[in-house]
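Writing this down once: the sequence line spells out the residues, with the fold written below as integer tokens. I am pasting one below:
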Amino acid sequence: MRTVDVLTQKLNDTFAPLSLNVVDESHQHEGHAGARPGGQTHFRVYIVSEAFKGKTRIDRHRMINAALADDLAGGVHALAIHAQAPDEGVA
């Protein structure tokens, strides 16, 4: 299974998001630290979930990092996070 699919499934299972888009940006980092042949190392997450209501930006990032801890400790080198609650608009 591709890493983007694993991340998407874990985020769906953990946060039941109203909106979720996981983008593989590995191609933009070829030749940089953490890049590997074949990519699947650098990702950007756009997520809107009720779970983020009342949470700070730091808390939201911690929640996502905890949900993806195994992946971040393994092959994922970088993760950019855009996390919002539903009343904050579209991520």
About this structure: Residues 3-88 form a domain with the GMP Synthetase; Chain A, domain 3 fold (CATH 3.30.300.90).
